[in-house]
What we know:
By secondary structure, the protein is of the alpha+beta class. The protein has eight helices and 34 strands.
Amino acid sequence: MNWKAIGASVFSALSLAHEAHGASEPPLIPEVKADRRICFTMYTVSRGVLKLTAQLYPIPSGIGRDVFLDVRRKDGWKTIGREQADGRGWVATFRVGDWDASSDVSYRVRHGNVAEHAGVVRKDPAGKGTIVVAAFCGNFMAPGAEVALPKTDLVANIKKLKPDLLFFAGRQVIEHDNHLAHWLKFGREFGEVLCDYPSVCLPDADDVGQDHLWSAGGKKAEKESGEDGGYYRPAEYVAEVERAQMAHLPDPHDGSPLAGGIGVHHTSLTVGRVSFAIIDGRKFKAAPTNRFSDNAAPWLVTTNAYDPSALDTEGADLLGERQLKFLRAWAADWGDCDMKAVLSQSVFCGGPHLYGSRERRVRADLDSNGWPKSGRERAVDTIRRASAVEIAAGDHLAYVVQHGIEDWGDACYSFAIPPMANRELRWWAPESPGKNRPQGAPEHMGDFLDGFGNRVTMVAVANPSAESHDPGVLTARAAGFGVIRFNRQEGEITFECWPRNADVGSRGAKQYPGWPITIQQGDNNKRKPTAHLAELTIKGAKGPVIVEVIDDASGETLYARRVKSETFKPGIFRDGPHTINVTAGSQHKNFPGVLPAESGGPMRLEVDFSPPPPPVPEKEKTSAKKRRSRR
């Protein structure tokens, strides 16, 4: 695919249309020639199923909507799919079962006799030591600008990184009235890499045409601000957005629609033995209506005179029981993975303190997923059971925090990735120094309570500098992208935070101060046990060893932990029988009903994965019998 030619063609079409209409602005959707009608594609492969979407420009009436998917085989091209582009969002969605993910496969999408768009479905990188995710969010325009900033530097870095997964965490489209036009523009910006790498997209508030989003189970909102809860645009508009951005994701875990037909899409995707839970941090979240009715923005707390515990009102939901049920099942399932991560639109804490200027302090923002506190704790507790990290969009600000529930630092890490361009500057600026911060660390690092009373440990933050707020100075505006590396051999996760216009392939390229950050997989679950089960002695294991501990009384998985040493002593949080499951590759060992040693349980258990000795050949058996008979 010649992307320079496509760019020139689109630019030409925009210019010609602009001149023909005598308008001050070119049309939002350019008229393209028939051979350019397919704008871009997106895909994922999961559990033997390829999901691929083709995004087309509007098809004129009288022209067929059939779109074909071909793959290259040894004897040439073979058609494996035929779907119609829908007449509203112009998306054709393909689902192909029995997909062989052991090798790269060239594909092309066709419309009519002339339109063609080619790409590569990558093989699953299961044999690769480190899985790389490139993460983006916030496709904002610079203040005062009429057009979005170019993405050429981001695309160039994606090509150098050759990631195993692209993640777009929200606000791919920020214009509220015409998702299709700006989604096509997003495709023109990123299409040359989207066709070749699997990707995950999660729509956020702006994508579905409103300022903020508390879906409240899918109800209808009356205000574009979204503060009364629900979706402001018609359900058909929301469905168009979700179909365009999410139809290529793996099949949903529980796809029953919400009120008004709003779709539900939480699911999981495994890439190179790293499992990603894809959740929606907005879909079930309660609205802040009437909680601060005297405030022009009722979701913001700007006064000190409030009780954080009063905000955690009964019945205020966050992820919803359906998503929590999915997360609990996902946390316990290690059949196809060695490491885990959660992809979402928002970090589970209250983030920045200063909004828009250094003079405007916000004490608590109910648009963040630090609220409601009880819902946040249920989510974080479930994620830590999987020893998973969270990757999410930042609140106009990049940072890394470790969450706490019973104590600081006892739960998972979250990486809030920077926006591609920053429309509103925000700062992490606590009024008191952080506690327990490393020696030499600045005072805004360390342990804090956010505005809802959640325990958070700030590890790194890319605050905007004190330089000029020139819209063109993207580094000063704390814009950029994130890279996350999962080292499966060592059980390590590394967070990288890159400024815009950096060259990741250059030896002297610098990340934002404080990055990179490397943690161990087990650092995502530091809950302190009250007792221990038998010490496990593990022998003959090939590959990573996962130990899962289940509370027999509740049936819940307390945690599943990767073990690197030959011995491990599982911690538990109450007395009574527990089940220990140990997995090494395709081998499994099960120990049900194990009591703590203090309650009469065993002191040690041997877990032996060593292969059995080879069988003795029949001739040797016969010879041995004869020797014994002679004696």
